[in-house]
Design goal:
It is built from one helix and eight strands. By secondary structure, it is an alpha+beta fold. It has a single domain, classed as Immunoglobulin-like (Sandwich), CATH 2.60.40. It starts with a helix and ends in a 12-residue tail after the last strand.
Length: 123
């Protein structure tokens, strides 16, 4: 019984962590364009291209497709460890011929910490 409860605890912990992470997503590429990679720019620095995984292999990680409320999105970046402050993102697709799309317009996200509690007391 203890092993079973421990297993449930680990499964619940993993599930809660995987659901809680925020992601930067976009519409999936058109299959006719033969896009196989996506590249994200964070604050002016292009990251290494991410290989797009085949459709319908859902997992919550960059390069995978994700369905939410009946819509399918491509996950570009896990925003869990995003630096504090204003962050600017761009993205572009790369096809099998190594040709790149034009980068998107910048998407700016302000990542601020919540304020500290103002009052601590023992009632």
């Amino acid at each position: 019984m203890k092993k079973f409860l421990l297993l449930i605890f680990f499964v619940m912990t993993f599930t809660i962590n995987s659901i809680a992470s925020p992601f930067l997503v976009c519409d999936p590429p058109n299959l006719d364009d033969r896009v196989n990679r996506v590249q994200v720019e964070l604050n002016g620095v292009w990251e290494n291209p991410i290989t797009i995984q085949p459709l319908m292999e859902e997992a919550k990680e960059p390069g995978r497709y994700y369905t939410f409320e009946g819509n399918t999105y491509l996950i570009l970046k896990d925003l869990n460890n995003l630096p504090d402050g204003e962050n600017s993102f761009k993205a572009k697709f790369i096809n099998i011929f190594n040709r790149e799309s034009e980068p998107t317009d910048p998407f700016v996200l302000n990542n601020t910490r919540p304020p500290s509690p103002s009052l601590l007391l023992i009632p």
